Amino acid sequence: MAGRRVVVFPSSAELGPALAHLVTSRAEKAIASRGRFTVGLSGGSLVSMLSKELLAMSDLDCSKWVAGFCDERVVSFDDPDSTYGLYKNQFFSKVNIPDSGILVIDPSLPVNDCAEDYTCKLKKTFPDDEFPVFDLLLLGMGPDGHTCSLFPDHPLLEETKKIVAPISDSPKPPPQRVTMTFPVVNSARCVAFVSTGGSKATVLKEVLEGREGPAFPAARVVPTNGELFWLVDDPAAASLTIQVERPSSGAKL
């Protein structure tokens, strides 16, 4: 692993542009090396922040992007719980990403079949990898320390073979979801967590500093050969005692 970087911003307003630059810089690097940029997206507050900041970039070119989802709710695309639906409305419909570059679930399938179908889509997209190697995964973390749809004390935390796993008993609604597994997450070239707000302060300290860290799913994200960023704001970082980076205004990651 290239090492963990914990980068603290005064507020989400300063964090957003740095996140957008991280995405576009990794995209340029990937396209120059491999002819495409593969990115895994997460939902929640990340959707609006990422969409707003990327759309503010004047020269954004998504024509060689391939976007998948770190997890997804098994609901119709017009349901407000659909992560793809949110990105479609706020981002995909406004950029030049081809339809073939967006890897979506089939929400009409039962949850187990939906996970199998999405696994097949990822295998076609990453035919040479045992586990898909994304250029960048963007993750969030819940107040319970979950990430993707990998929740504390859930059997899926120990999954080692599946690429995409079904979950029908999510403690957070909606209950039926599909999620990338840790072998996929930890195969990525770069993983970036975005965590903001004071409600995350206690769990963030435990994940980054605590002896019980591995008990939290987010603490198990340790890319084998990749970069790991934690991009957080001052309220989320309020309890941290480890050394962190505080970039000057406009600094690039």
UniProtKB/TrEMBL annotation:
It holds the Pfam family Glucosamine_iso. Keywords: Hydrolase. It is an enzyme of class 3 (hydrolase). Residues 11-230 form the Glucosamine/galactosamine-6-phosphate isomerase domain. It comes from the Eukaryota. The keyword Hydrolase applies. Pathway: Carbohydrate degradation; pentose phosphate pathway; D-ribulose 5-phosphate from D-glucose 6-phosphate (oxidative stage): step 2/3. It catalyses: 6-phospho-D-glucono-1,5-lactone + H2O = 6-phospho-D-gluconate + H(+). GO terms for molecular function: 6-phosphogluconolactonase activity. The keyword Hydrolase applies. Transmembrane segments: none annotated. GO terms for biological process: carbohydrate metabolic process; pentose-phosphate shunt. Its EC number is 3.1.1.31. Hydrolysis of 6-phosphogluconolactone to 6-phosphogluconate. Belongs to the glucosamine/galactosamine-6-phosphate isomerase family. 6-phosphogluconolactonase subfamily. This is 6-phosphogluconolactonase. It comes from Scomber scombrus (Atlantic mackerel).
